[in-house]
Amino acid sequence: MAIQLQQVSYTYSERSLWRQTALHGIDFELPQGTMVGIAGATGSGKSTLLQLLNGILRPTQGTVSVLDITLRAGEKAPKLLPLRRRVGLVFQFPEQQMFAETVEKDLCFGPLNFGMSPDEARERACRAMLDMGLDLALLERNPFRLSGGQMRKAAIASVLAADPEIVVLDEPTASLDPVSRKELIGLLTRLCRERGRTVIIVTHRMDELLPYADRWVILDQGRSVFQGSVRELAADPSLLTRCGLAVPDSLRYWRAVADRLGLEDEEPRLTPEGLAELIVSRESGSSGRVGEKGTGHE
């Protein structure tokens, strides 16, 4: 398993009168090489959960195991530098953390701090740029002269340059236009499928991630109320409403078509193209059967 949480709780300002528990008894396991979506209403504990995954926060109760590193509540933490190299955390609006005068210097900063040589750091920077679909010529550019979409991808590339095994992203498509959002999700999906990275994405735009995520974790008031596949989530989308979330259009459309045509055993089709193709194939099949029956009566 890439990640395992056992009865994990986290309380802010634990020893003060103003303590607030953000997570309550979370249990889950995430296999390596999967793409995972995390959703929940504001204040459900999503960002707190992400920060537990690379040691920025440590559990106040329970155990967090990431790869071969374990953090237990009440015990002295192991050295966290190896964990932070292997788990890349991309905060919301990561471009706000870019600081160097060129994209290359920004991307090389992390690898150099993790002990890589300048040549190796540049090689990792180039690979990360390509993973994000960016032209290597942009390495010489000032990051603040890039377009919004380019700057977001360059900021994510600065985390990928350290070659993490797990990539954790908090609302990576926030504020991007629809075309840039779709492109970025496609690049992250390729990073998972082709490069074998475990990719974990917190999002409030479930629609854009539903066709690609292998698993979903739904949080409600600091508790995990759902963990499972898209197929399991599609079987009862009303769960999202009970958690204060809007049911994505793709799930509503799939549920309506599945109920009408009796498609409980089918994998959900969560893109317009996929759903249209299924409907056409079903109608074609029905027409063929009607034609066969007609021929038999003649």
TrEMBL record:
This is ATP-binding cassette domain-containing protein. GO terms for cellular component: ATP-binding cassette (ABC) transporter complex. It comes from Paenibacillus rhizophilus. Pfam families: ABC_tran. One of its GO terms (molecular function) is ATP hydrolysis activity. Keywords: ATP-binding, Cell membrane, Membrane, Nucleotide-binding, Translocase, Transport. CDD domains: ABC_cobalt_CbiO_domain1 (cd03225). It comes from the Bacteria. It is found in: Cell membrane. Belongs to the ABC transporter superfamily. The lineage of its organism: Bacteria, Bacillati, Bacillota, Bacilli, Bacillales.
